[in-house]
Amino acid sequence: MRTRAVSGIYLFLLLFLLIEVAALERQIFDFLGYQWAPILANFLHIMAVILGIFGTVQYRSRYLILYAAWLVLWVGWNAFIICFYLEVGQLSQDRDFIMTFNTSLHRSWWMENGPGCLVTPVLNSRLALEDHHVISVTGCLLDYPYIEALSSALQIFLALFGFVFACYVSKVFLEEEDSFDFIGGFDSYGYQAPQKTSHLQLQPLYTSG
């Protein structure tokens, strides 16, 4: 029985549950903000988490290795999100097409719905495009770039734990697959084929000419 693997599976599944809930929460708010690039990335992440759960329950180390590889990309994506909203380097929120694929003028849902935010329409604004309006957002307890950055930081934090656990559990699975023989473990115990008893063995027959 795979005692080493079983001891850590329940903790790993609990971590998977937290990661999945955080990903679904992220997906919901990105849908509300029509953020198509994050929506696609979140969908791939949710599928990767399901793959990791399946690999853990079915003792498939390859699936966990694939999940760990995806987490490296996921950490990089969330690091980019943090830099984008905090406008690190040459990144700017004016380039909103990065998040929306240039299909809408929507931004983060938290821009208008953050804690304490008061949204006031600006009428007859020269900045308003056709069929659009300009709004003024004031009184926010925490501005939306920081909310988005904190959300991505949480994703990175969970991903780091997931990466460590995935590597550990997949290593345990690989070790036990190497030491376990599905035909009774004959290799481990130096199995040899049964020998014929002496009275059943063929004996040479000599005849006199």
From TrEMBL:
Spell out the subcellular localization from the entry. Answer: Cell membrane
Question: Which first-to-last residue range defines the signal peptide?
Answer: 1-23
Topology of the protein relative to the lipid bilayer? Multi-pass membrane protein
Q: Which InterPro entries match?
A: Na/K-Atpase_Interacting
Q: Which UniProt keywords apply?
A: Cell membrane, Glycoprotein, Membrane, Signal, Transmembrane, Transmembrane helix
Q: Out of the domains of life, which is the source?
A: Eukaryota
Q: Which GO terms describe its cellular component?
A: plasma membrane
For this protein, the parts annotated as crossing the membrane are 39-57, 64-87, 153-174
* A biological process term (GO) from this entry: regulation of sodium ion transport
Q: Does the keyword ATP-binding apply?
A: no
Pfam families per the UniProt record, alphabetical: NKAIN
Question: Does the record's keyword annotation contain Transport?
Answer: no
Question: Which family, according to the similarity comment?
Answer: Belongs to the NKAIN family.
The record's note on quaternary structure and interaction partners says:
Interacts with atp1b1 C-terminus.
Protein's name according to its UniProt entry: Sodium/potassium-transporting ATPase subunit beta-1-interacting protein
List the taxonomic lineage: Eukaryota, Metazoa, Chordata, Craniata, Vertebrata
